[in-house]
């Protein structure tokens, strides 16, 4: 029986093994923004109709694995000013989430699809903003040369994979929404505020990769 690597101390090959074993199995129930807001479940399920894809680019920088994220510009129609993975709507000509995620990553941050070894596609993550997001996980062999498209991306940064997998860095915040208190996940990293949909996708990614259970959190 093959022994899986420890998720706390992953190199590129260890990540590839764990991802293949844990990340891409079909979901047994919908996953999304309602994980810690069960009262919003039906509303989110009804809202989430537009197919979209994001790329989770895991980079082998030599010393440790990291994940590329972006800060979206303030002028975008959805999730403006938020930290996000490169990605967007799946167009008819894309042919599916992998093609869409790679296209968007190239358009937004200049990441050449030839540099991305696509490992698979995680189950859809449903959002109250109306999207059914397919997270595409890719391994990038070395730190790429990137350039933000300033029509969409204010800047690019990377976060150590170990930071994102450490649940000590996962916090729950809240605010009022439609007269009810709504909770959301947040993962502040230095000057970068990771929260909302992106944090939710990261949490689902972390739980699957580490064998940490389903995406339900206490607040």
**Global Rg:** 16 Å
Would you tell me which CATH topology of the domain at 7-33 and 45-164 applies? Nucleoside Triphosphate Pyrophosphohydrolase
Regions with little confidence, pLDDT below 50 for 5+ residues: 214-219
Shape: globular
Say which CATH homologous superfamily of the domain at 7-33 and 45-164 is assigned.
Nucleoside Triphosphate Pyrophosphohydrolase
User: What does the largest sheet look like?
Assistant: 8 strands, mixed
Which structural class is indicated by helix and strand composition?
A: alpha+beta
Number of strands: 11
Proportion in helices: 10-25%
Distance between the termini: 38 Å
CATH architecture of the domain at 7-33 and 45-164: Alpha-Beta Complex
Highest CATH level, the class of the domain at 7-33 and 45-164: Alpha Beta
Order of helices and strands: HHEEEEHEEEEHEEEH
Q: Indicate the proportion of strand residues.
A: 25-35%
Question: Helical element count?
Answer: 5
The averaged pLDDT comes out at 89
Notes on the protein architecture:
The structure is a single chain. The chain has 219 residues and is of the alpha+beta class. The protein has a domain at 7-33 and 45-164: Nucleoside Triphosphate Pyrophosphohydrolase (Alpha-Beta Complex). It is 23% helix and 32% strand. It has helices at 12-22, 41-47, 97-109, 161-165, 196-210; strands at 50-60, 65-72, 83-84, 87-89, 116-121, 125-126, 131-140, 153-160, 171-177, 180-189, 192-195. Strands 1, 2, 3, 4, 5, 6, 7 and 8 form an 8-stranded mixed beta sheet that branches. Strands 9-10-11 form a 3-stranded antiparallel beta sheet. A hairpin with a 2-residue loop joins strand 9 (171-177) and strand 10. The longest helix is centred in the last third of the chain and has 15 residues, at 196-210.
């Amino acid at each position: 029986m093959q022994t899986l690597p420890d998720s706390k101390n992953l190199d590129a090959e260890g990540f590839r093994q764990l991802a293949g074993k844990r990340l891409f199995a079909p979901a047994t129930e919908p996953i999304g923004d309602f994980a810690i807001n069960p009262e919003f479940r039906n509303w989110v399920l009804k809202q989430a109709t537009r197919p979209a894809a994001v790329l989770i680019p895991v980079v082998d920088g030599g010393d440790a694995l990291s994940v590329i994220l972006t800060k979206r510009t303030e002028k975008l129609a959805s999730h403006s000013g938020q930290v996000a993975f490169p990605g967007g709507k799946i167009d008819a000509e894309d042919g599916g989430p992998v093609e869409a995620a790679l296209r968007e990553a190239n358009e937004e941050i200049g990441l050449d699809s030839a540099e991305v070894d696509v490992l698979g596609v995680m189950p859809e993550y449903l959002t109250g903003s109306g999207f059914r997001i397919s997270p595409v996980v890719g391994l990038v062999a070395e730190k790429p040369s990137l350039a933000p498209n300033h029509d969409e991306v204010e800047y690019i940064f990377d976060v150590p994979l170990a930071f994102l997998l450490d649940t000590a860095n996962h916090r729950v915040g809240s605010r009022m929404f439609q007269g009810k208190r709504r909770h959301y996940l947040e993962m502040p990293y230095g000057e970068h505020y990771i929260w909302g949909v992106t944090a939710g996708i990261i949490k689902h990614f972390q739980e699957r990769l580490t064998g940490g259970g389903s995406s339900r959190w206490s607040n």
